[in-house]
Write a structure and sequence with these properties.
The chain has nine helices and no strands. It has 195 residues and is mostly helical. The protein is elongated and about 55 Å long.
């Protein structure tokens, strides 16, 4: 039986996430980080150029994972159905990522990360619905922004409150309470200029 011990890099990343709970991520210093992680500066610099490089590393890891996970998530959210294996995948995805996602999207997180996530989700939703930016009206653009921002805040909420409803259960309940045809019609309708 093999035991996987965290590497120095893992410990540094974990220390960064812990510090982000109380300090804005762009204000964390290498000194604070190495002290928290229990390593010296040379160990930090063996893995990262600076704290911004560490943040980019985390973001790249999440975007790779998100790229694999997002098509499945969109299908489940839009249809309101999840098979047993999809539920297991969701559970595994959130067990491995929700804490870090909620920290990076939370009050001390990185606004650039939030912007990149929003842009990525927006592109995926448009692609899933077979829409282009040119087809969006101001009202559908606003609706899309509302949906994306709301979903991201659900992730933050669930990460900050581990005893809450899981994101998947929340999305399935929400999806089942929405009239899909009206929703999709609203996403593609022309703006109401009567007011």
């Amino acid at each position: 039986m093999t035991t996987n011990f965290p590497t120095a890099k893992d410990c540094i990343i974990e220390a960064f996430l812990q510090l982000c709970l109380t300090i804005p991520c762009d204000q964390i210093t290498v000194s604070q980080l190495t002290k928290k992680a229990g390593y010296n500066r040379s160990t930090f610099y063996a893995h990262f150029k600076n704290t911004d490089d560490l943040l980019r590393h985390l973001e790249a890891k999440f975007f790779n994972t998100l790229g694999i996970f997002l098509p499945l998530a969109l299908r489940i959210i839009i249809t309101g159905n999840a098979a047993a294996y999809e539920r297991r995948l969701f559970k595994l995805f959130f067990q491995n990522n929700i804490r870090a996602f909620s920290i990076l999207l939370g009050k001390n997180g990185d606004p650039r990360f939030a912007h990149k996530i929003k842009r990525s989700l927006r592109q995926a939703i448009l692609q899933y619905l077979n829409l282009t930016e040119a087809q969006l009206t101001p009202q559908t653009d606003m609706l899309l922004e509302f949906i994306i921002s709301g979903h991201l805040q659900v992730l933050v909420y669930c990460g900050e409150r581990p005893d809450s409803l899981s994101p998947l259960d929340f999305w399935l309940r929400m999806s089942n309470s929405i009239d899909r045809e009206k929703f999709l019609a609203a996403m593609t309708s022309k703006p109401d200029k009567s007011f």
